[in-house]
Amino acid sequence: MSDTLTQPIPANIDAVPPGRGLHRWSILIVCLVWPLIWVGGQVTTYDAGMAVPDWPGTYGYNLFLYPYQTWLFGPFDLFIEHGHRLLGALVGIASIVAVAFAFVSEPRVWVRSLSVVVLIAVIGQGALGGARVVLADRTLAMVHGCTAEIFFTLCVTLMVVTSRWWWAQSANSPRSLLQVSSFRPSGGLIALVGVVLALAYLQVLLGAQLRHVQPTASPGGFKHLVYTHIATAFLVLSLAAVAAWKLRSKAIGRQVRSAAGSEKAEANQNGCGDLTLSRPAMLLVLFVSLQITLGLATWVARYGMPLFAQTNPSMASYLVKSQAFAESLIITGHVATGALVLVTSAFLLLRLVRANYSRRPEWVAS
Amino acid sequence: MDSYFRIAGSLVGPAAIFAILAVAGCDAPPGSFNANDLYAQVVATRQNSQPGQAAADVSMVMESLFGTPDAPKLPNAIPTNLVDPENLTRAAGPVYSDEDDTHFGIYRSRCVVCHALDGSGAGPAAALQNPYPRDLRAGVFKYKSTPRGEKPTKEDLLAILKRGAPGSAMPAFDRLPQEDLDALVDYVIYLSIRGEVERRLIQFAVTEMGYGDQDGAAIDSERLILDAEGKLTDPELRQTVSQIIENVAGQWSDPTPITVPPMPDFEGDDLVAAIERGRELFHGQQANCASCHGTNGNGQAVTLDFDDWTKEFTTLLGISPGDKAAVKQMRKLGALPPRPISPRNLSWGVYRGGDDPETLYRRLVAGIAGTPMPGLLVQEGEGSTGVTLDQVWDLIAYLRSLGDLQLAGTSR
After folding, report:
1. ipTM (interface pTM)
2. Among A59, A322, A324, beta carbon nearest to B110
């Protein structure tokens, strides 16, 4: 913890980087999208995707004018499906505001473009959800679930690239005075986290196929999907652990010593590395571990206790309960935590790429 | 930095395409029920012949009589008080619900992942379950109140739906509205009758119509041909098929539960004595339960047996379940890998079919249909081959003591 974050803040801190409003707004969007994924997951868990047969209206009403009494006190399926639509609409409105923020205060053209991409993505996501309903197509429901995670990742990307940390890495930024570390992540480390991100999304695809399994799917195919899903989960855990270890280990301290001289070597001998990178990496390991635990619990909640685990009366008498709320939270929690794994990987990858770019020797020298 | 994001931006499109491709083509709306190719092979193997087009032609006839998974039909021979057409419509087809909280497609929503569209028990998730989900098409049900060879009552099916089967993947659907459960019960009966009719028709086609002949197919005049209205062209065949449906549906018309005599009022020393007598019976030659369930019901006895659904395509055809090559041929036709059936560890007091004394009584005297669990021969006086009524209750007292259950106490 002896990094330069603890140093006194210089007087020029008031040189506020552009995009602060956009950054705060993008945090709000991220905070809205994760519950949106939860509610969408509950829609699938309860198989309530067709509880409202029309779109974009709800039973003939404008989405926002549907009687709230019927929504709140009517059928549970209707409650979560209509709630999912309302929350989705809210995220859409928030995305429009984000574009406005971007065009007013954000100097970087590509960030403005990104805000537009986020808006287009949320519109596309809504249209996909609508098509799922209008066409009564379960495969579109699966695609809708998979693209939701891409949208979430885009929102997190917007949040990261508009952050104070991101700005502080710039050589032109006054906050470069607060540079916490001159550790420059290697291309190999970036590739490693990139693989974790790709595998995390592969897990999303595999998990979606298991959740939205077609009635005509073969038992053999389903079995292989499950085995691949489990094997990939442990692969993701291993790779994330390696990345976290590399980012925290003293090897990084040595690397910093050679790259930035003796001044930084002392700062990193505690083995924590660059906390702005190692903390997200540790969080990633934590999320993947939680996700594996939730995955096992999901299997038990959905398909009962495996025979090999029935070693005592309590385990042997486990009863699967259809439509039980606690079990539904476990199953949907597995989906939501999978989204966290994905965006944490993306978060870490973006920071690593940024650090790799901004901590080039020629920049450090300048 | 911009170049990084230009590269990243250029990857978004391909990534999205990859994501869509990864899931595209998965939506396979069920057009028809699968033909029962496995049973056609079983029948043909018994006849030392080939199934030919039997399963496919029978499937065509079945569709004309019973409809499709999305649009099921009820043949006239099935009484509507057995299967309510309205319930059939509600349970079948795609999943949706209305503003009044009426659910449709309940079978597809709750059951199909394990029991499959046609009730074959070979749904997508079936291979990872032990025991496998029930194949409803054979018309054999394990947990019921009726004698071994009879169909269950509607109440039996309702009970297993509500209660579930602990230790298996069969959930308790007690949170579903009663009308949904009723619809599911009717649909299970529909699938079972449909499956059994299909089996009998396959049997008839292979053994009586020449489908099993050496040339692999009967001549056209002997085949199951439908006219433009979807009816069998041959009036005699039409009559035969109607008769088969009537016979199968008739078995469901009035199943009678086994009458359970009054339970003795065991208390105190009487209960201890009954448990001791039950223990001796359990381990003795008369009941001989320990030979499968192990000493004190610990489930440790070494057994190698299979359920009837597995035996049908293996041992009863002279195929060893361990013969991978022979079994592989059956698996290609829809069979799940043979899996030995294990006697329950009774010392845990966990009974999938229920643990109340009445249920245990019926289980002891009727056995469990489709499994090696036999029923006891109940006789008037004591003998070497059967047990008396009192001895059945002694056994029940012992069984319930194993799981620390109180006789006539609250069920788990």
Report:
1. 0.88
2. A322
